[in-house]
Amino acid sequence: MDSNSNAATKTALVTGGASGLGYAIAEKFVQQNIRTIIIGRNEQKLQAAKEKFGSLCSYVVFDLTNLAGIPTLVANLEQEHGKIDILVNNAGINMKKPFTEVTDEEFQRIILTNVTAVFALSREVVKTMLPHQSGAIVNISSMAAQYGIPKVIAYTASKTAIEGMTRSMAVDLSPQGIRVNCVAPGFIATDMSAKALDNDPERKNKVLSRTPMGKLGTPADVAEAVYYYATEGARYVTGTVLPVDGGNSIGF
After folding, report:
1. Where are the beta strands (DSSP E) in the chain?
2. C-alpha 103 chain-centroid distance
3. Secondary structure class of 242 (helix, strand, coil)
4. Whole-angstrom Cα distance, residue 147 to residue 226?
5. Angstrom distance (rounded) from CA 226 to CA 245
6. Has residue 210 been placed in a domain?
């Protein structure tokens, strides 16, 4: 394992890396010999992921809604790990509620986690990338930004913002050698989606009937797209949004 870690060439930061899509992304990176730092709030889950992924993986317990702490977090990471080559903004929260029942506080909470924290973390990581004139940032969007989904107003606002931010960041940062792209997962089989869909057969049928491939995706499908964007294969690709959705966003 040690020879592996010596040979590792790049360092990646994955938020929400202890479960779901983030876990699959971190797993793919480690398999490809990328040193991977996962950030999350649940130490138990982070520790379990680290044990599974081995010595190329390390973790930090941090709540990204603590905006004031983000500059110090990134400074510490840079000091400990050197250059951060890849940032994956995967951490996000959702809430399903009828439009008129969503409170200002609930709306703000989702915007804070899904948009403001993504901006603040990206800003600080970019400051460490600029001297090297290189880096790749991958944001995670959703089908909620591709078309209207009922009862997720705050989440939809946040993910639509992420796609706009991706384009804006790409225009600002690509001249400095930092590429910024976005993956928009469709309906992916995770613990979270299983709960939502298995309890709601009508919603599940609707999802599958408008997905031309007729099945849910896997977290590994999303991880492959993120890996592509994060590495040399995508060296001339920036400011794009890639749906990984079995055709769901164009389905009828």
Report:
1. 11-15, 35-40, 57-61, 86-89, 135-140, 178-185, 241-244
2. 26
3. strand
4. 22
5. 14
6. no
158-167 pLDDT, tens per residue?
Answer: 999 999 999 9
DSSP states along 64-118: TT-GGGHHHHHHHHHHHH----EEEE---------GGG--HHHHHHHHIIIIIHH
Q: Is the pLDDT of residue 182 over 80?
A: yes
Output the six-digit token pair for 237.
């690709």
Please identify which of the residues 59, 155, 227, 229 carries the catalytic annotation.
155
- The answer to whether residue 155 is catalytic is yes
Neighbours of 209 (CB within 10 A): 11
Domain range spanning residue 230?
2-186+219-250
The answer to whether residue 199 scores a pLDDT higher than 60 is yes
Helix (H), strand (E) at residue 243: strand 241-244
The token pair at 75 is: 């400074």
Tell me, what CATH number does 246's domain have?
Answer: 3.40.50.720
Angle, vertex CA 86, rays to CA 227 and CA 130, nearest 5: 145
Taking a C-beta distance cutoff of 8 angstroms, is the pair 190, 220 a contact?
no
